[in-house]
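Teaching assistant's notes for section 4

Start the section by putting this record on the projector. Ask students to predict, before seeing the second block, whether NAD(P)/FAD-dependent oxidoreductase will look compact or extended. Collect guesses on the board.
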Amino acid sequence: MSELDKRSVVIIGAGPVGCALATLLRRQGLEVDVFEREEEAAGSGSGNSFNLTLTSRGLDCLPRPVRRRLYLQGSVLVKRIVHHRDGAISTQPYGTTDSHHLLSIPRRVLQAILRDHALRSGARIHYGRKCVAVDTARPAALLEGRDGATAWVQADLMVGCDGANSAVREAIYRTHPEDMWVTRDTIDHGYAEITMEYRDADPTGMHLWPRGDHFLQAQPNRDQTFTTSLFKPMERGAPRRQFSGLSSPEAVHAYCASEFPDVFDRMPEVGQELMSRTPSRLRIISCAPYHHGRTVLVGDAAHAVVPFFGQGINCSFEDAATLSGLLESARSGARYADGAVMENIVEKYSGTRVAAGHALAELSLRNLQELSAHVTSPSFHERRALERRLHEQYPELYTPLYQLVAFTSTPYDVAQQTHRRLSSALFFFSLTTL
Ligand SMILES: Cc1cc2nc3c(=O)[nH]c(=O)nc-3n(C[C@H](O)[C@H](O)[C@H](O)COP(=O)(O)OP(=O)(O)OC[C@H]3O[C@@H](n4cnc5c(N)ncnc54)[C@H](O)[C@@H]3O)c2cc1C
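Reveal the predicted structure now:
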């Protein structure tokens, strides 16, 4: 690659978002080059093996053939199935119509489908190329190859789809700290995957064991397995990263036997698993704006949120569709290589997506309370039932927050504001009318 290597659109990172964006841009006929630090055989994406839940908000941003393949491989979940400590089971529908469901899909399957569509659409994916610096003035990225050699690649538009530890974001922040702010936070909770036998489980719901400040979650797969994760606060000041109170296999067994008695016998390996796997931290990374010059951040590079609303990748696909839509609508008469046109496009993109990303970060953190504790409380159920009745009677006046967030394209920030406004009205309504 020479110093003058010039491309049209360069995407850093061939994770799910980089591949989805590449496909959308290729559909407009743009030349797209994607540079990925991992080797092709290793696959790409964040490397975690958990399932991702997609909702219509994110799915509708993807081309129809991609959606079709995702539905063939994923599991449709229409409700939460709550396992109470006393063995009772209750269910909560995600919405009020058939389209109100989650599509749960293993991350590696999602990644493989999106990569395949990016390649089929004509995007070039270059593996083993790590972005180590960005010059937003050109814009150009410095890429390090397998042999350690580096070379610049220049583009009309440079897109960072390189995940929560984005090198593109860090390069902008390091070189232009006056133009971008970045905050990074971790929460007390961590998560770890464990193995739970499936045995005649209900395959149409997300199974949840909410227990105060911690919970177990199991997502059924098409092959009659569960993808199961424990979310729990971590031990502060421990020599190695571990869940609080779970420092030995015996402690893990005692904990699972008392907290999850109905499925304890389905987790024979749990003691050894939680001792050998270091729980992962959950991070929140926010920044603004999402661009500098003609360099722009999309997906987790722009906003890493905690996963308690299951919307991180849905929001990221919405980012990709927004950027792609702006490029398409500016197409007639405009030359992409015209820097001013491109700068205007990315400024507009950042203008709409920053508010959405920040609102989602707040909504996601707040939902931890709901998943850990509220879903077992009778008043929570009464409120949800009231919200559903209200929505059925006055759909134009009231839509529950979960539905607005997961199943509409109402911007996250607008959904959040609307919900705040209607919450107090709902309380008054419940006292006086129902
Ligand atoms: C536990 C957990 C559960 C989640 N569950 C859900 C869910 O149910 N629903 C949902 O919507 N979201 C969920 N999310 C969020 C979702 O995982 C992310 O939003 C999504 O993975 C973001 O994709 P991405 O392509 O932006 O980043 P990544 O998946 O991190 O991909 C980034 C890519 O860039 C590459 N890369 C990184 N640095 C460089 C570099 N310097 N040069 C070149 N390449 C580079 C990486 O190798 C990788 O391929 C969850 C997240 C977590 C942690």
